[in-house]
Request: fold
Amino acid sequence: MKPDKESTRGLAQVEGYLLWNAEVEQARRAARRFTDALPWLTTAQRDDVERVYVADRVEICRETLTRIAGRAVELRGEYTARYDRLRARCVLVSVLTVGTVSGACAALALISR
Reply:
């Protein structure tokens, strides 16, 4: 790998790590807010509810991210195919245009003799 691609990949991994940790921390804060609304819970019950809440939310986030990543891959494939078709059309139009202009120039040269 080139150093540029390697550092880009490393930065993306660090960014993903930080974003994921922020999401987990946000889930923990939401779990604390939820259990704060239930003052009758014992400490052990509070800890269990928070643990289950965080685990559930993290799993939902993981599923959502997996679904989004899959869709991004699908879209990349669709747009790549569209780009390839567009490029092929542009090349074809360019070749036809050059051929037409060359033919017209050749015809004019023959006529003007």
Notes: Residues 3-111 form one domain.
